[in-house]
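Could you join me in thinking about how sequence relates to backbone shape in a protein? Label the sequence line and the structure token line clearly, so we can match residues to local backbone shapes. Once you have written the record down, we can walk along the chain together.
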Amino acid sequence: MFLALPTVAALATLLPSAYAAEPYSTWMSDTFITKDIPLPRSYPQAVLYRGIEAVYNVTGDTSYFNYLQTSLDAIVDADGNLGDGYSSSKLSLDDLRVGPTLLYLYRETGDERYKTAASQLREQLDIQPRTPSGGFWHRKPAYPDQMWLDGIYMALPFYAEWTGMFDATNEAIWDDIILQFDLIEEHCRNTTSNLLAHGYDESKVASWADPVTGASPHVWNRAVGWYAMALVDMLDYLPVEHAGHTKLVGYMDTLADGLKRSQDATGGWWLIMDEPYPGMEGNYIETSGTAMFAYALLKGGRLGYIDSATYEETATKAYDLLTEKYVIENSAGELDWEGTVSVGSLKGDASYEYYITQPLTQNDLKGVGTFIFLSVEKEALGA
């Protein structure tokens, strides 16, 4: 089962007048498809591709599809082999994020090269190291026995989409996908705030690991954003009749409550979300996580996973903040994106000081791409 975004005709009738001439979704896309963006296989680029894909699905403008195909053809050779330095020996879940774009091109064109390339990513999951409980390591050898929220988004929507297309009756695979979410929920969910820690170490040997749960000490907004998007995107592919479907809807509903309660009065979300850090010196409203939350809330509401009447206002307030303060028209009439932190990792001590000292990057694709597919959702709401 594959759930589509609103059709071109439907969107055209729904767009508010302010967006009619230049929707932010196409304006931002048009800005970035003309840029020289290196490393087409990296996960930030893959987030941008997802945004461009969403805009193409809505507009039917072939310039967007051509951009996707040209970008991916740069890393897929005539035999379907992945280039751009890909090797399954790296065993990083980050490498799998481009998989959905390969599957999309395969569905749209029927070109077996894209399926072959995607199959190489799918095969990585068969050799990806696992924790004793069966969770995928985020990366070998750097993060033994560690699961991160980031990796859930990087790997599981692709894992589910591949399974839905080519192995849909394999109940063991669907169960394995649900297990990954269950382990994150067991170790990372704070049942008071309904938010989640960045990740956990099942072996509890990392310097930051909680001695009971193995969880890292802080709620980093982009990690939670990756997880929120994974939940709503996973449900596009997971069979409704599978017991895990109801479970994931419940996980999303719980997270939506935590997001609504933790939203700042400005409409954004703090980089570090756990108390007492919101508003503390050095902390700030971070835009990639804010866009991710707004997207998940809007899509979740549109598809009935959460109550749209409860959460649409939350998402709209976030979107309005982004467009008013962080999406900037430059002198060329193009858009710049501001306020996105470049990186967040569990490589070091995972301290508050670590997170708040990472640099911000203008036009960071992790924020840009998310803003594009968020805009598609927002523009479909109408006035």
About this structure: Strands lie at 146-148, 199-201, 327-329, 335-337, 340-341, 360-361. The longest strand covers residues 146-148. DSSP finds 15 helices and six strands in the chain.
